[in-house]
Amino acid sequence: MKGRTTMSDFTTRARALRATLQIEKSFDLIERPVFFGGRRALFTLIDGFVKDELFEKITEFFYALRQDDPCFQTEQDFLSRAVPYCEAALEPNISRVSTAVLSGQTALLIEGFHAFILLDLRTYPQRDTAEPEKDKVFRGSHDGFVETMVLNCALIRRRIRSPQLRMEAYALGTSSKTDVVLCYMEDRVDREVLGRLHQKLRCPASVDALTMNQESLAELLLPHKWYNPFPRFKYTERPDAAAAQVLEGDVILLVDNSPAAMTLPTSLFDVMEEANDYYLPPLTGTYLRLVRFLVLLAMLILTPLWLLVNRDPHLLPSAFSFLTPDKPPLVPLFWQLIILEISIDGLKLATLNTPSMMTTSLSVIAGIVVGDFAVQSGWFSAETMLYMAFVALGAFNQPSFELGYAVKFMRIGLLCLVALFGGWGLAAGLAGVLLLLLRCKTFSGHSYLYPLLPLNWKLLRKKLFRPPLRKQ
Questions:
Q1: Nearby residues of 222 by Cβ (< 8 Å), 6 or more positions away
Q2: What are the tens digits of pLDDT across the range 71-122?
Q3: HEC assignment per residue over 392-436
Q4: CA distances from 463 to 26, 271, 290, 293, 436 (A)
Q5: Residue 410 pLDDT > 50, yes or no?
């Protein structure tokens, strides 16, 4: 009969899959031989990735099949007549069957059929779609992405019910074969950007695994100089923000096992945007956005400027003489600022590794003991503590963690140049920061400062002043 194979073919295919997966070496790889409809069959799956109820239902249906049932005529007949509950596909290639099983699908081999039947009975361990800690909003949606990619795609689909929405799947990594999804609007996306992405994802450089999720993918898509820390991608854990970017014509990349979405192309102005800007009235949203830009600028130049006026007091007008310490510090101001820059990150790491129930206690100790006693002992001046406290708090004002550290590295460089060369060092350092920004390109190849350079006033006004939603 057409579509039938011999018994030895069934045994050969079963042994080939067993050898490829090396089932006997892993306890969670399960091989379950069964009989239904008078034929031998073999289920191959990973324990913990299969929905028990669905697997039970479908096996009950299989066991009820008779030997003369029409579904056994061909593989396609079996799919259309005997698999009513889940997604199913035929796959003759052993390597692809192995990858599917390791991804959580169930492989079914039936005596007499040429190909394996892949049953999608997957379920992944996952947490609730709670609001992300980093991307909280005053009002609006309070759900967030999780580590399960299929659910993340559904959260975007829920917000964009358009047939133009595309979700393209890729598998990257020789060993990990990590699932990556490309999400965009067919009628709005930049075709040049989409073409470059397709080329990168279909012909990736030699990469063994996306062990660090988005960071591994980011360095694969857009390698850049190590000394330029400005972020090339925007990350968000909010499905509403990701959906808004898709509707604006951007491309979203979702990586399995990661609760964040990557947006590209991304400029500095895109990184500075936040969901709260649009969940509040235009005037309030514009005010918050401008405050964010001003604080970013203050984070960069506040301590270098203060160090400069203390190094060269003649540059300071007499009306601002209160900015200098009353008595000479025991530790030079430059070293005070550098020590505090490092100490703040040390406290951040300590907080990160502190159990949540003890975080408040750590904050009290850091604020009272370290801060107050450091000033009383004479090691640090009160002014230094004040300015560094502002800089540390300003870092939390930025939606991008990477941008905060990019500004920090630039600020430390400016401090060193001011300590060595004074005002000329500050001017050269600011010119160097501008040069880094100019040399930084987005994934599309445009300027990182666009729409400021080159100037597009209509788009720049939209980036600086939150327009009414009806005009977008």
A1: 232, 233, 443
A2: 888 889 998 888 877 889 999 999 999 999 998 999 999 998 989 999 999 8
A3: HHHHCCCCCHHHHHHHHHHHHHHHHHHHHHCHHHHHHHHHHHHHH
A4: 53, 11, 10, 11, 21
A5: yes
- The b/e string for 78-103 (b: 16+ C-beta within 10 A; e otherwise) is beeebbeebebeebeebeebbebbeb
Does the pLDDT value for residue 321 go beyond 50? yes
Q: Which pair of structure tokens corresponds to residue 173?
A: 């990594």
**C-alpha–C-alpha distance, residues 441 and 462, integer Å:** 21
Residue 22 has pLDDT above 60, yes or no: yes
User: 168 pLDDT exceeds 50?
Assistant: yes
Q: With 50 as the cut, is the pLDDT of residue 2 above it?
A: no
Alpha-carbon distance of 330 to 326, in angstroms, equals 12
Mean pLDDT of 408-421: 95
Classified as helix, coil or strand, 329 is coil
pLDDT at 340 over 50: yes
Q: pTM for this one?
A: 0.84
Between CA 389 and CA 406 the distance in angstroms is 18
Q: Rounded to whole angstroms, how far apart are CA atoms 141 and 131? A: 8
Q: What is the CA radius of gyration of the chain?
A: 29
The neighbour count for residue 208, using CB atoms within 10 Å, is 10
Q: Is residue 277 over pLDDT 80?
A: yes
Q: How far apart are the first and last CA of the chain?
A: 63
Buried b / exposed e over 3-33, threshold 16 CB at 10 Å, is: eeeeeeebeebbeebeeebebeeeeebbbee
Strands lying side by side in the sheet with 116-120: 29-36, 39-46, 106-110, 116-120, 87-91
Cβ contact 306:414 at 8 Å? no
Counting every residue written for the chain, the total comes to 472
DSSP structural state of residue 368: I
